Amino acid sequence: MCTQSVGLIAGVLEQHGISTVCVALVRSIAESVSPPRALAVPFRFGAPLGEANDAEGQMGVMRSALALLQESGPPPILRDYRSSGEPPRSR
Question: Strand pairing of 77-80 and 89-90?
Fold first, then answer.
């Protein structure tokens, strides 16, 4: 799904008490839609978790995305993924 659709759906789900985290391929669209929580990733379209057969790298993306659920503060929370093992950063 596209970043815009997922961001809008996430907002509705959160209004109904379901926590969400979006993985966004296009940061500028995530900024304009303002999903409750989003992780902007630097990967190509069709590979939002990274390259195929890179289980370790894909798990790193998932860990970073799920870590956003632990962040406090008002939404939207938008972080950039960093593949070096560092936590996601704000921008």
Answer: antiparallel
The model's pTM is: 0.84
- Asked if residue 79 lies in contact with residue 38, where contact means CB atoms within 8 angstroms, the answer is yes
pLDDT in tens, the chain (91 residues): 688 899 899 999 999 999 999 999 999 999 999 999 999 999 999 999 999 999 999 999 999 999 999 998 888 999 999 875 555 555 5
67-88 as b/e: b if 16+ CB within 10 A: ebeeeeeeebbbbebeeeeeeb
> Can you tell me whether residue 32 is helix, strand or coil?
helix
Q: What angle do CA 85, 86, 88 make, to 5 degrees?
A: 115
Taking alpha carbons only, the member of 40, 85, 42 closest to residue 65 is 40
* Residue 39, token pair as written in the block: 């992780």
